[in-house]
Specification:
heterodimer; A: 332 residues; alpha/beta; Rossmann fold; 2 domains; five-stranded parallel sheet; 8 helices; 18 strands; 28% strand; elongated; B: 266 residues; nine-stranded mixed sheet; two-stranded antiparallel sheet; 7 helices; 30% strand; globular; binds flavin-adenine dinucleotide; binds adenosine monophosphate
């Protein structure tokens, strides 16, 4: 049995910047490492990413492993799994954390399987069981209707963490850390995955994940025209528009604004849910909002159980009148 | 084109919260008779992805499901839509597993099927929400995977997949055999025709026990778990919603605006 020690974070870099989820993971990892009195390391993989190391140190890492190679420019499962396998076997961390992102959800289970250990995806809380030094991993299951706490005896214990579930530390640029360059050692012939094209949906206005006000439309909106109305209201409130899954499936709203278990996770200051029933799979993506406001014609809708303010009525009458009144009050 | 689709039978994930109960003594969910069993929704999309390829290129679709008390009306549904064969890993020894031990058994069954170009799974099962079985099967079989697909096209010896990303999608190409996990962005799934339903009634599933697929007893089901469930519980929701009243919907709307300004939310 290898002598596994320390917490390792798989850090994601987008456009030369440490991602929010990476900052959150480093914050969570720092706490776990302190609880274990062990080291926090970060693994940075990509092409031209070495310069991120100081930032990862500022956010809490003690040691940075950098695997920088042109072959690693795009995320490709086969290449990245090989790199994670190599570094983990060299470093032997006790815990390996990734973000529940496009990359993390693909990489974590495959890497864990190769390393003959287990993984838990999309978790929301991490604690150390002081008796066994095992990681206790809390994850929503049954579409958010329940929570499970898991542990595993195999090492490293692998988990992916949901966006916004953890808090980043205030970066401290005076922190010191060590940078270790690891050779990718990849055989180009062994990489069978090819990324042919990347299509990014264009967004106008405020980014959904960053908006402090989110106006979300549900199935009850009934069509694309309704979403135009919500768009207008969002503009007045300086917010962004989100959707439940049915409007995205129906093509009334782009897939990229779906909020929920399998969509985006948002936690704005104000979340206005319009004609949304409040299914657990949807609430999984917005229950971290500070103030939920529900507009629904069904007084029994589950959304009212999680809202701070509610209006029972027809959104078609409520939204225009609400927008008009807000404008009137804003101009005062 | 030989295709395999893994489907899981689950309790209807969209059943109301009030029908959801947990037995704290056993850390398991208590099934309520009013909630029906269904094929996990993303697995229905996985079946649809395979059917689309069969429509375009022809081929054979083998459906595999692991569990106990698999309701024939539920698991036979893909047969009524155009799948060719149904294999059930139906044995108490197979259940109670985690992603890894489930994937181990499914991979062993797939090896026994032998010929396959594409394997389809759902992106995640609607009960466990684990999202790992697909990647584990691919790793055990040593084949490439593409996860969270919204479009899958097979082109001689390769498969081209539109993979959903946070802000759009990526077009990824891998050689076959490969494993693809499918998401709801694939679009609507087809309905069974009367003829299809009648035909599926006559078709009997093939049942495999652990010994039939050469599975090591210590690696399947609960025995093969790497993950231990310490606790299963329901989060408490504190409901203290203030309902904003008014004569008409327009009045309520104006009152809501006033209220939100008053409490400084907008
Ligand atoms: C595995 C899985 C994953 C899922 N992931 C997600 C996810 O990520 N995100 C997500 O959103 N869903 C997800 N879902 C779907 C989820 O279970 C619900 O089906 C969905 O959230 C319901 O959306 P809704 O509230 O818009 O529609 P409905 O539940 O149909 O509710 C519509 C509401 O609109 C109200 N309404 C209708 N007309 C009006 C009107 N004129 N004025 C006022 N109110 C009106 C109705 O009273 C009703 O409450 C998932 C499901 C599964 C099984
Ligand atoms: N018991 C099962 N029988 C057949 N397929 C399964 C089973 N469990 C999981 N799968 C497949 O693996 C996918 C992911 O499941 P999970 O990793 O449990 O979320 C599902 O969508 C199915 O395609």
């Amino acid at each position: 049995m290898a002598d596994n020690k320390g917490v390792m974070i798989f850090v994601e870099v987008i456009d030369g910047k440490l991602t929010n989820i990476a900052q959150e993971l480093l914050g969570a990892g720092r706490k776990l490492a302190n609880d274990l009195s062990e080291e926090l390391s970060a693994l940075i993989v990509g092409s031209g990413v070495a310069n991120i190391a100081p930032e990862a140190i500022a956010y809490g890492a003690d040691k940075i492993y950098v695997v920088d190679a042109p072959l690693l420019k795009d995320y490709r499962t086969d290449a990245y799994v090989a790199v994670v396998e190599k570094v983990v076997k060299q470093v032997n961390p006790r815990i390996l954390l990734l973000g529940q992102t496009t990359i993390g959800r693909d990489l974590a289970p495959r890497a864990a399987c190769r390393l003959i250990t287990g993984a838990i995806l999309d978790c929301i809380a991490l604690d150390i069981d002081t008796a066994t030094k095992q990681l206790l991993i809390t994850k929503p299951v049954y579409g958010g209707n329940a929570r499970a706490v898991y542990s595993m005896e195999t090492l490293p214990q692998v988990a992916t963490v949901r966006a916004k579930a953890m808090t980043a530390l205030v970066p401290d640029s005076s922190r010191k850390g060590q940078v270790v360059i690891v050779d990718a050692g990849l055989d180009p012939a062994a990489i069978k995955t090819n990324v042919l094209q990347k299509v990014v949906a264009e967004t106008t206005g405020i980014k959904l994940e960053d908006a402090s006000v989110v106006v979300t439309g549900g199935r009850g909106i009934g069509g694309p025209e309704g979403f135009k109305q919500l768009e207008e209201l969002a503009k007045v409130l300086k917010g962004a528009v989100g959707a439940t899954r049915p409007p995205c499936d129906a093509g009334w709203a782009p897939d990229t604004i779906q909020i929920g278990l399998t969509g985006k996770i948002v936690s704005p200051y104000v979340y206005i849910a319009v004609a949304v029933s409040g299914a657990s799979q949807h609430m999984a993506g917005c229950s971290g909002s500070k103030n939920i406001i529900a507009i629904n014609r069904d007084a029994e809708a589950a959304i009212f159980k999680e809202a701070r303010f509610g209006v029972v009525g027809d959104w078609k009458k409520i939204i225009p009148a609400f927008e008009a009144k807000v404008k009137e009050l804003q101009s005062k | 084109m030989n295709m395999i689709v893994c489907i899981k039978q689950v309790l209807d994930p969209e059943a109301p919260l009030s029908s959801f109960k947990i037995d704290p003594a056993t850390n398991t969910m208590v099934p309520v008779t009013s909630v029906p069993f269904v094929i996990s929704p993303f697995d229905e999309q996985a079946v649809e992805a395979a059917l689309k390829i069969k429509d375009a290129k022809g081929g054979k679709i083998t459906v595999i499901s692991l569990g106990v008390n698999l309701l024939r009306d539920v698991v036979k549904k893909p047969l009524s839509l155009g799948a060719d064969e149904l294999i059930l890993l139906e044995d108490p020894a197979f259940i109670g597993g985690d992603s890894w031990s489930t994937a181990y058994a499914l991979a062993a069954a797939i090896k026994k099927v032998g010929q396959f170009d594409l394997i389809f799974c759902g992106r995640q099962a609607a009960d466990s929400d684990s999202g790992q079985v697909g990647a584990c099967i691919a790793e055990i079989l040593g084949i490439p995977q593409v996860s969270v697909a919204k479009k899958v096209e097979a082109i001689d010896g390769k498969v081209k997949v539109d993979k959903v990303t946070t802000d759009g999608y990526e077009v990824v190409e891998v050689p076959t055999p490969a494993l693809i996990t499918v998401s709801n962005e694939l679009g609507e799934v087809r309905f069974a025709t009367f003829k299809g339903t009648m035909a599926s009634k006559k078709k009997e599933p093939i049942i495999w026990k652990p010994a039939d697929i050469g599975a090591e007893p210590a690696k399947i089901g609960a025995a093969g778990r790497r993950i231990k469930t310490r606790k299963l519980f329901q989060p408490v929701r504190d409901s203290k919603c203030e309902i904003i009243g008014g004569e008409t919907d327009e009045d309520k709307a104006a009152n809501l605006a006033k209220k939100l300004v008053e409490v400084k939310l907008i």
